[in-house]
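Example 210.
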Amino acid sequence: MTNQRGLLIVLSGPSGVGKGTVRAAIFNEKDVDYVYSVSATTRNMREGEVDGKDYYFVSHEEFEQLIEDDQLLEYAEYVGNYYGTPLNKINETLEAGYDVFLEIEVQGALKVRERMPEGIFIFLAPPNLSELEDRIVNRGTDSHGVIMERMQKAVEEIEMMQHYDYVVVNDEVPNAVKKVNAIIESEHLKVDRVVDKIQAQIHEYFQEGA
Ligand code: 5GP
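Predicted structure in complex with guanosine-5'-monophosphate:
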């Protein structure tokens, strides 16, 4: 284990693009080194979800208390519910050298970018708009008007792509997973991240040889 600070990885993208599926596939792999940042939400628990693992399920009052106590890195209101990233473990985990992985919607990601610009911001994009529409339609029983509203919102969100560092097209989940992992791997190889370690080795070599 290195004591170099870990990376903050933010996976985000428009509603319906499959962020949750890609995130689940990444964390279902063996030997995952990233620590998932469990969000707090006021929405109801879905079947199969576990409190503290998928989300911290809290009441509206509890969530508003978290906001008031400045306990959230960011939060957003999404389809009538609050979602937010608890601050407490993030810095601690990064300091311990572990990468922290957030999967959040676009507004929240832009707020994280303001507060932690050193993060790696990955935008998950739909292969095309008709596929996104299919996913939105297949999700529920929304009327044509609501679907059009969601598509309009999704297009606005897609335009936010320019504020990110990378774009991964979610054509097939395994492809997207591979690309996200590859991005993180190359970020770890950036000169800025390895230079101190190599300089220390050089220093040590000459000290020992002297
Ligand atoms: P769901 O209700 O389907 O689990 O999530 C709805 C949306 O909320 C998804 O787009 C998900 O990425 C986003 N989300 C989950 N946790 C957070 C969070 O902590 N902050 C923000 N801003 N969005 C979140």
